[in-house]
## 1
Amino acid sequence: MTRKTTSSSADPLVCDFTGGTVLHRFKYGGGRGQSLPKAVGMRGGKTPKVVDATAGLGRDAFLLASLGAEVTLIERSLEMFNLLNDGISRARDAGGDVAEVIARMTLIHGDAKDLLPDLSPEVVLVDPMHPPRKKSALVKNEMRQIREIVGTDEDSLELMQVALSTASNRVVLKWPLRADPMDGIGPCSHQILGKSTRYDVFMIT
């Protein structure tokens, strides 16, 4: 992973589960009919245990936990880990429904490639820093800030290989909708398409 120095910003990066788009999605989202829950196997009353191998700001993990899943979040960037840990702590202290969701989230600092074999995961979610956009439009400021912190996930193929060798049910790769498949891992079992993102699902047989 290539590291970069974080630049200053008028709006510092914050992890927040108690307001904004995260809370709105929690209250008014589409439940298990959303693309990510379907991708991890939340169908027919099933609620798999999920390891989010690239936790970032924890929003995907929070969504899954809000639908009843036990989610282990792994983040190797210490700066991102501290932001996420702060957000989790504040949400836990806030109490109420959000705190109940947070109780189903376990955060670990470390490299998922090293941690996954000991976790014996059922489902692994991998959301690496995506390839640079071919279009010239700038990505959102928040995503630029995250990229400045974590750099480029040059070992995303290695992570996928570890995930595929350790997951007992499936591995879900979150990927840009129109991006080429990740080289070196073979075809996925199926895809679930969103507006700008797709989920490449690799079933373990």
Note: The mean pLDDT is 87.
## 2
Amino acid sequence: MDNYLVINNNQTVLLKDIPVLNYEDFLSLNTSFIDESTRHCVNYFAYKLHNKLKLICCIADDSNSTILLSSSEINVDETEYPSFTAKHLSFHIFEREIHENFGIKYSDHPWLKPVRFAYDRHDKNSTIDNYSFYQIDSEELHEVGVGPIHAGVIEPGHFRFICNGEQILHLEIQLGFQHRGIEQLFLNKTKLLQRTTLSESIAGDTVVGHTSTFVKLWESLCNYKADEDIQFARTLALELERIAIHTGDLSAISTDIAYQLGSSVFGRLRTPLINFFQIWCGNRLAKGLIRAGHSHFYFTKELAAQLENTLNAYEKDYSEMWNVFKELPSVLARLEKTGVVNLEQATAIGTVGMVAKASGLNRDIRASHPDNNYVDLKHEPITKRHGDVYSRTQIRNNEIEQSIEYIRKMLQNIPEETKERAPLSLPAPNSFCLSLTEGWRGEICHCAITDEKGDLMVYKIKDPSVHNWLALALAVRNNEISDFPVCNKSFNLSYCGHDI
């Protein structure tokens, strides 16, 4: 028998078909996979199975659009297990969560720092109040604490800097102030609409990304193939969400370098894009638009004409503003060579999305594991190589231009509305399913396991932010602390996507 199972994106398999290995073989297999640069871990999680802990590891092989599944069953007692992280740092976030939730002990994990202080964590005595931050004992150094309460409406998070004068030597980021228990809510809620609404609330700036991932997974569990018009609408909405958020981020980056014109113009240009979602489905964040097995909001030719007009007006002003922005010496002085994450670091810590691509690491689900209309669009990811704030800014610009091109191409061939849709069946029992989507921030992964009745037994969510928070901490080292805000905005990671 093979020691791993090969599946595709959005594929449902029987849970019993995932090979169960002893822990040593399980560790050796999955860490050896990561020795290939085209492979990376998209999810690694645990759940209680009788009196044992079951581990499932999902490794994406981007070279042939497959996911490699394997599992292991272990006892959680006083036994210490060797860690994946000691061999490949990219596993750190997954093993830290497993340790926090279930108490598994590792003999060689470099740093079992809490992930999110889950309400059902193994050690209730581990709290944010008694967390021990990394310290350096020196009279020449000082600490700067930022948060957890921030100005504006963003979620709480704490940033602890160790500085020598203005120079940052170390940044420790601690989240988990607002753990919401969304994964458990997916099990508690029994209606599809309730679960869909939950998926819309995982990260408020990625409604289309997370909801699309959930409904694709659910349709796979129900052995349902979405009609052409539904696939079209989901792809279109993903690219529109990408343009809108990237544009807003360019405004935020401009704000943090005190470039008021860029802040105002890019900020204004985001508005008509999200207003189009309001016209399309009645909500500017696209809530209500994506549903499993059906759609309340068919994309009509009249909507296409409105979107074309919106893009025409947007593109003219956007191009004019970007052409000024990209050549302004005062802008370039703040963005170039600031907040660098090099290719070696990006690979080692397992970055995804814009952060990976800005450092030269090609990771984009639209190309490596395509679904919906991305199969026909034949997406070509855009990468940079300097890994600085300017590279992450350029990625946004290039993806905005690329997404506009994709949308214009799609608007030339709008599928007819499907009048009679097949009903959704019940989810397959004793099954596992994994769905990947390239949101604007990077790869989103949802996994589900059903019991013998077909009810959800495990629901596991991974927002791309969890891969990239460590990259932000590395990026600011040796930068001046005044550069932290623009470094932070160039990543624009999600607090709520982390604190699920």
Note: The mean pLDDT is 95.
